[in-house]
Design brief:
Elements (H helix, E strand, L loop, with lengths): L4 H18 L5 E4 L4 H13 L7 E6 L5 H14 L2 E6 L2 H9 L3 H23 L3 E3 L16 E3 L4 E3 L7 H10 L36 H5 L1 H7 L3
Parallel strand pairs: 1-2, 1-4, 2-3, 4-6
Antiparallel strand pairs: 5-6
Helix pairs in contact: 4-5
């Protein structure tokens, strides 16, 4: 039997509560993209702590995000008083990226840059745990993920793992969670602007993302991607 949304919310709160028992607040960081899923995670944490987010929040900035995302991130940072850290991709990575003319190679480089930024952040801030807004139904490579997933040098925590895309929107609408305007324009899943299109009509949630990236998601996750 399918779990009701309220049951999934209770589970998310249990996971957030367990995370605070396992780790000190300064050891945990929320990974936030400005997208619908990670914003719901922020809202869940904020609600759990009665209007306060006690963890640092990381925004992985490729410098190629939609302007709407940058505007939304700035808005929510101020509105929710986030302790936001913007992790930009390294200057060396960016130089190599912009010197490359082959589009397929640029796509591959963009993924590696994002992973490098995550790894650089882990080293710089001595993070023990990331709270991440991924869902099992979003991609086959994430379907067998655990609520607490041990990685080589940190733990990934997944409060909304059981949510579906519909659950995310039901939660967003019910609790009036703000979201970026791109979702009203036909986008269902957001990545870097040069590599993200509106969802294909009748297609999957991630049908507007790069097809080759979707095929290699498991490999990318093994390298450190969300």
């Amino acid at each position: 039997m399918k779990k009701l949304l309220e049951e999934k919310i209770k589970k998310a709160y249990l996971i957030i509560g367990e995370a605070t028992k396992k780790f000190k607040k300064n050891e945990v960081v929320i990974a936030w993209t400005g997208g619908k899923d990670s914003t719901v995670v922020l809202h869940l944490v904020r609600t759990y702590f009665n209007g306060w987010i006690p963890f640092k929040v990381m925004f992985n900035d490729s410098t190629m995000e939609f302007q709407e995302i940058y505007n939304f991130v700035a808005q929510i940072k101020k509105q929710w008083n986030l302790d936001l850290i913007i992790e930009k991709h390294s200057s060396d990575d960016m130089k190599r990226f912009y010197k490359e003319n082959d589009l397929e190679k640029k796509k591959e480089m963009s993924r590696i840059m994002k992973i490098n930024a995550i790894n650089n952040f882990l080293k710089e801030y001595d993070v023990d745990a990331f709270i991440v807004g991924i869902r099992r139904d979003e991609h086959q490579a994430r379907s067998k993920e655990k609520y607490f997933s041990q990685r080589k040098n940190h733990v990934r925590i997944h409060p909304i793992l059981d949510f579906t895309e519909k659950d995310v929107w039901d939660y967003t609408n019910k609790y009036k969670v703000p979201y970026v305007s791109l979702y009203k324009k036909g986008y269902r899943s957001l990545g870097e602007k040069p590599f993200t299109n509106k969802a294909v009509q009748g297609g999957t949630e991630r049908s507007g993302r790069e097809y080759d990236k979707e095929k290699t998601m498991e490999k990318l996750r093994n390298m450190g991607y969300w």
